[in-house]
């Protein structure tokens, strides 16, 4: 017996929800299907897919991917969605990615023949029209609702939704809620007291009224203090679907606070340190450059008063729901000079070049850039050709001129080719960007000892130079001895490692990823072009960290630093 999933959807009426369920259970019985899953929720018809699928659709897709169902039953086309593009895409996904038939009760048709497994192409075309009609119907419903609201507004009748905290709703407007209105007034008065801020006001009010969870949030406190409706003048907005404009209407409601108190609060809020940026935000050299290797979040700069030290660490486990457990700390006094001296090492050699060498290098980079642009233009043409092929293939399939297996096979080949071309174009874009950077370097006569001394005396300039070369820093501990940094630069990825606990050494080692890649699972470096680094005859080789230290030292791949 095939397993069926019921997809239900209604806005507010629980009876409608139960009716859909009962009707689809009868359909399942008629087709001798076992109801294995029921997915459904109370949602509106607007289907704002920019915020993602409905929860029930996500759960349905998961069930398909986990092979928990064989068919899907839906009451009406509009119950799936009222968005044309989303509906067509979703049906195509179920037909071609999952090969799972959908039965629409209002159409009395399957998207896929349950016996032969063939896609019903004619019904696909019919569904396109049905989704288009559903979308037009939704626009019409919205327009009628907006017109009704405008009529109410014209008569001075309140039409908006949830009333502000401190009010209750009645037929033609809002009434003051006697048990909550005094709390609103107390909040305004408390905030105006000397020394009070949003956080202290929130703590005071919530501490006094702990049963009202709404008062726990600083955001809610700020929202209440900003809401002019409490002065007796409420506003509501209506969006015009036809002219694409928003109309604002004002209504008189009972006041809880006076205009003078409201204005005083707004003046204080405008100067509140939590609502205005700090005039001189703290800046530091590696700001927005260090990213967690586990969750990708930026590292936070933290100061320890007890030890009088500054370090970086990932704090996303406290600030979000990522659950990141990274324990990698970086001491600012060590990592700052390592990264800066590394960048200087990469840039400083340009300052030692004579005019002839610079011109030769610039000519070489211009040549590289021209070739990359030429290759990229050719790839753009190839990409468009493949896109055209894919469109023609889909048309053939929809017109039933090609069988399903042949369609999937050819589609897979085209998509792989598109992916390959896109990757090549991205690499060429990086190459062009690198050439531009190098041309700028070779044209510059700035990279001298004196230049770097001047830059180091100005944090803004130092940050600018650093960011022109470094795109990101990804730290991880190799073990308790070494600290390892993956440094993404304009010239590619570099591996930098050092021993933070060896206070006397003050030396870090670096090597480009194309020369040696670190494998944390075996704690070794792999060198694909070993003869470029050593005197060995071996084409490739594996090295421990201690061995790689010696190789880097012999090749000059090291930077000295002072804390």
Automatic annotation (TrEMBL):
What keywords sit in the KW lines? Answer: Coiled coil
- Cite the Recombinase domain residue spans from the record: 164-275
Q: Which residues form a coiled coil?
A: 376-431
Q: Which residues form the Resolvase/invertase-type recombinase catalytic domain?
A: 3-156
MF GO annotations: DNA binding; DNA strand exchange activity
Taken from the record, one Pfam family name reads Zn_ribbon_recom
Q: Does the keyword Coiled coil apply?
A: yes
The residues that cross the membrane are: none
**InterPro entries with a match to the protein in the record:** DNA_bind_recomb_sf, DNA_bind_recombinase_dom, Resolv_N, Resolvase-like_N_sf, SSR_resolvase, Zn_ribbon_recom_dom
- The molecule here is called Site-specific DNA recombinase
| High-level lineage | Bacteria, Pseudomonadati, Bacteroidota, Bacteroidia, Bacteroidales
